[in-house]
Structures are given as C-alpha cells and as structure tokens.
Write a structure and sequence with these properties.
The protein contains 23 helices and 15 strands. The protein has about 625 residues and is an alpha/beta fold. An 11-stranded mixed sheet has the order 14-13-12-11-6-5-3-4-2-1-15, with helices on both faces. It has a two-stranded antiparallel ribbon with strand order 7-8. Helix 6 crosses helix 9 and helix 13 crosses helix 14. The chain starts with a helix and ends in a 9-residue tail after the last strand. The N terminus is likely disordered.
C-alpha cells in the first residue's frame, strides 16, 4: 500500500471526519470473522494460495497484457476470441441459419439490382430499397440521393444489414457474445463507410470543387493541430477559452473543507432567506464537478441557489499513481461521509438533501443504504441524476464488462496505477463511433470545418483519471456481480440494502443516455420501499441533466409514487406519463421545496471548525 494512502487514512482519523480506514490485512481478518461459513468451506489449497503465490508471475502476466493492449486498444483478445468461437461453433451446427443467411444474401442482391435498374431507367427519384437507421445521419443529405452515390450508399446499407443477420439469432450463442460480435462488425463497417472517403462522399467532393481544394488543406492543418495537442497531452484548441473560475464554475463560493481526496465548496446565498436544509451534490469522480456549474445561464448550482437553497458541492481530486490503492469505500468515507460531517458543523441540527450524479449517485446510494442500516438519520431526501443502482442492464458499456475484459483492464491500470483519460474516452467513443469518431473526422479533416467550442465540449475535454483499485472494485462488485442491487455489497463488514433507504427519492433518467440507460436508472423505483418520483428528460447523459430553462426543444415526464402504491414497469410508466414542455429543473425544485422547511436566514460561510480556506473553485479542479 502506498505511503500516500496510509497518510491519507491516518490524517482522516486525526480529523475525526471519518472512521480511520483499516489496512488490507485488517479488513481481510474482519471479513474472515464475519463469514465463518465461507472459511469453513475453503480447502487447504485455498489457504495455501496467498502464501505461495509469486507476485513475480503476476507481474509477468500484467506486463504481457499491457503489451497486447497496445495492439487491441484496451480490448481483451481472449474475450473477442471467445465471442467469435461461440458464434463459429454454433454456426457450424446450425445448417438452417446458414441457409437463412444465404437466402437473405440472394434476396438483398435481387432487391439491390432491381433498385439499380429502376434508377437507370427513370428520370424521377426512386424509393430506396433500404433506409438508414434512425440514429444514422451519414446519408441524410440530398447529394446521397443522386447517382452514383445513391447506389453506393444503398449497397453499403444492404451489406450492413446482412452482416447484422449473420451475427445475430444464431441458436446457442450467448447474448453477451452476440452483442460483442455486433459491436465488432459495426466497428469494421464504420471504417469502410463510403462517407469516410473523399471519392465516395458527394458532400466532400462538392466542397472540394467549391473551394478549389482548400477544404483538404484546412483539414490537414486541423489534423496536424490535433496531433500536436495529442502528443503534448493538451486539450483541444478552443477548450482554453473556458477556464474554471473565469468562464465556467463562476458561481461564488468558498472551499470550507479539504482532505486528500476532496474539496467541499459552499456556495454563497443569492437570496435574503433560504430553505433550512442544505443540499449536498456528489458528482462523479470520472468528471470535473463543474458540469453542474457551467456558464451562469446553464448552471444547475446557480439555479438552486437562486431558488433559495444552500448548496454544497464535492470537488474530487484527480488521482495519480500515488492513489492506486484507494478503494471504493475510501471514496464513500473520505467523500460523502466527510462532507456530511463538515456540513453538520456549518449547518447544525439540519438534515441534508443529498444529490448524486452518475457514479456519484451510485456512491451516494451505497452511503445512504449504510446510513439507514446504522440508524443515521442525517438525510432529508435522495436525488439520483442519471445514476444506476442495479447493473443488470447497464447499456452498451456491458460490452466491456466480463471477467476476461476486466482482468485485461486490471493489467493496464496496474502498470500506471490508474485508468487514464485517453483510455476512458476511447471506450466511450467506440460505442458511438459514427457520431463521435468518423463524423468528426469527415467534418474536420475532409470538409475542413471546426465545430465551435462551447462550455460543455470544453468540460468534456477536461477529463479525470480513475484509481486502480477503486475502479477495479467498482467494475467487479457493481457492473459484473451487481452486488449492490442483490444485497451482497459490504460496508464496514456488513451488507447494505437499497430497500433500507426510507427517505423520499427523486430519480432522473435521460432518453438518449448511453452510459446509464433510463430503464436501468428506473430500477431504483422497484428496489425502494419509499416514496419515489421519477423524471425522464430529453437529451443524453450530460445534455439531458444540464437542461436549463429556456433551452429549445426540451421535454420531460415526471410521476410520483407513494411507498404504498403499486409499481409500474418502465414501458407502462412511459405510456401513462404525459410529456411536458421545458426543463425538468422546476419540477425538481418544487419537489425539494415540498420536502423542506420554511425559509429563514442563510447559514454562515463556513464555521469555526471549517473556516473558508479559499474562494471557489479551489485547486482540485485545476489538476491535470
């Protein structure tokens, strides 16, 4: 265990903000005492394994997998081979499926030839033989409807559909392997899309003709600038126009508490009177906190303060190699629990509205369940924004969650002590390679255009790292084993249960969320034995939450369920909950108000034990 983590834990014990974290051997001993049945079932080989295990062999395995990762972009070759072998062996044993895909190939070829002949013999527009998927915008332009480009894109879409037929519905193939094969074939086909090549993209050809080739020259300049930024490890050009404390994260406040993992921001009041219950926001540590305090016009923090709420926000440290041994429970103790302790000193004798965003919501759910188990009644309510507590349907990220892939990822993190920002961004981009990779390449390198940087894009470029041990625990215990939802996740040696949470819950899902799909976020309604309000808003994982008033084309739905009411499945909920125009923020503030006391004078900024240390946004937000 690193010296830095030992110092971090000892310091916390001295400060009294959280119980001192025992070392690994102490935790293992407490687990052994708590689980005699498990220990009794162990064989002599199991006891021998920790003593005889040679860490040199483990290091050699890690080194080999790190070397392989350079060629596989972090994907486990064993996992990919398992998926292919599962498909191949079952395909060999399925002559009916083989006949089906052969027939589909012939049928699609016939349709394509009839379409080609109709286009040749007609001067009018011919109805396409296949339409792109709703989310596929590559061939929407009118130029793609003119020959020969209509024939090119129709042929590609036919091929894409046929490959989908090849890798799906093969009897006996597991659902996980089928999803992995769909992902692989989609990646390969995306590379070969005619929209990616100047000679087969009519929009690029038209732009080249109009500019005399200047678009390609500008595109090459854009490429060289990006390459230079990548090699220098710097943010994209334009991101520097949005500096925290100057352009974004400008809501006035002070750092009132700091430890080796967090800074706690208390925001200054903007009203003469405030609600007595403060709000604590726990953002995800995969992102800088100011996603919720962007520009003044779209800052959720500023909106809450303007509505008369006292707001506190956690700003996480950007971990480095010295933080490799931080655990998921360290984040709970030194993050959520330490913040609650500090808030209790500044706003004494008041319960707290706790708000968690993304991974922060999952961590907050764990903390709330442990507090409920222990009789800790400091929470007034719980709000979960685009967060999951049940990971049986985690969306497209499930492609990267299996034992082989996690072992491979462990090796990558083991060498450097953390998961870096490039590796995380690459995984998310591959899930939506059309939108996040190839469309950008076409626009910036072939069309020679640069997307104008905005505050959300600049924040997205300001990514953070993930500590080795914490991230490994998070993926295994939650994504892979679903320990939280199934009651196996332990806090202080005892399991916690989400159903123990009795404070009212407000949960938000977003329609286009690829990180925490809304049906997955909805599961909190079925896991809880308390009042639950669920809101579904338009937009994606970030833009759906940052949904300021006046934003055009925003819609949301919200329904409140009492603890004694019957549960709804998500599809029934969707069909029976009317859609409303506008932002979901006012509906949430109305809900917070209904669970708050009467307005009174604002609390002081900090207190004797936690005086203001410096102005917000503090120092953590500037760590690169």
């Amino acid at each position: 265990m690193s010296d830095q983590v030992v110092k971090l834990r000892n310091a916390q014990g001295k400060q009294g903000t959280a119980r001192a974290v025992p070392d690994r051997s102490t935790r293992d001993m407490s687990d052994a005492k708590a689980e005699p049945e498990r220990d009794a079932a162990m064989t002599s080989d199991t006891y021998d394994r920790p003593d005889t295990h040679d860490t040199r062999h483990e290091a050699f395995d890690h080194a080999a997998q790190v070397w392989l990762s350079r060629f596989t972009h972090g994907l486990s070759p064993a996992a990919l081979m398992n998926a292919w072998f599962d498909w191949a062996t079952h395909m060999v044993a399925a002559p009916g499926k083989q006949l089906e895909i052969a027939e589909k190939a012939g049928e699609k070829f016939g349709r394509y030839m009839r379409y080609a002949m109709a286009c040749t013999g007609s001067t009018n527009a011919v109805a396409p033989c296949i339409d792109p998927l709703p989310q596929d915008n590559r061939f929407r332009g009118d130029a793609w409807k003119m020959p020969p480009f209509n024939l090119i894109q129709q042929g590609f879409l036919m091929q894409q559909q046929w490959w989908h037929n090849v890798v799906t519905d093969v009897p006996g193939v597991t659902a996980q392997h089928e999803r992995e094969l769909q992902f692989l074939t989609r990646q390969m086909l995306d590379v070969l899309s005619p929209s990616n090549f100047p000679g087969t993209n009519p929009e690029v050809l038209k732009k080249t003709q109009q500019t005399g080739g200047l678009n390609l020259i500008r595109g090459f300049q854009n490429y060289m600038e990006d390459l230079q930024d990548l090699m220098a490890g710097e943010a994209r050009d334009g991101a520097h126009s949005f500096q925290p404390g100057r352009d974004v994260a400008v809501t006035k406040g002070s750092i009132v508490y700091r430890n080796q993992l967090i800074e706690l921001i208390q925001y200054a009041p903007l009203t003469d009177k405030v609600r007595p219950e403060p709000i604590l926001i726990v953002p995800a540590w995969i992102m800088k906190y100011y996603i919720l305090d962007l520009s003044p016009q779209n800052s959720l923090v500023r909106y809450l303060v303007e509505q008369g709420h006292t707001v506190f926000m956690i700003s996480w440290k950007n971990p480095d190699a010295g933080d490799r041994d931080l655990t998921l429970d360290d984040y709970r103790r030194l993050g959520v629990m330490a913040a609650l302790e500090a808030i209790g000193g500044i706003v004494p004798d008041q319960k707290v509205h706790a708000v968690g965003y993304c991974l922060g919501g999952t961590l907050l759910s764990i903390a709330a369940a442990a507090m409920a188990r222990n009789g800790d009644a400091r929470l007034a309510s719980l709000s979960l924004l685009a967060s999951q507590v049940d990971f049986t349907e985690p969306g497209e990220l499930a492609l990267f969650i299996n034992e082989s892939q996690l072992a491979f990822l462990d090796s990558v993190m083991w060498k450097q002590g953390y998961l870096n920002t490039t590796q995380m961004a690459g995984a998310f981009q591959m899930l939506r390679s059309n939108d996040l990779i190839w469309s950008r390449i076409v626009r910036e390198y072939l069309m020679g255009e640069r997307a104008q940087m905005n505050d959300l894009m600049a924040w997205n470029a300001d990514a953070t790292r993930m500590p080795y041990r914490m991230h490994s625990e998070y993926l295994r215990k939650l994504y892979l084993n679903n320990d939280l939802a199934e009651g196996r996740l332990k806090v202080d040696g005892r399991p916690v249960h989400v159903s123990d949470i009795r404070v009212p819950i407000f949960a938000v899902g977003t329609v286009k969320d690829h990180v925490a799909p809304w049906r997955s976020a909805f599961k909190i309604d079925m896991l809880s034995d308390t009042d639950v309000s669920f809101a579904l808003t338009s937009g994606g994982h970030n833009a759906g939450i940052v949904s300021e008033l006046g934003h055009p084309r925003r819609t949301y739905r919200v329904r409140h369920r009492k603890a004694e009411d019957l549960h709804m499945d998500p599809d029934t909920w969707l069909n029976e909950t009317p859609e409303r125009e506008g932002s979901w923020w006012p509906a949430w503030v109305d809900w917070l108000t209904a669970h708050s006391g009467d307005m009174s004078g604002p609390p002081p900024m900090g207190c004797k034990d936690h005086p203001p240390l410096e102005d917000a946004p503090g120092t953590n937000v500037f760590q690169k």
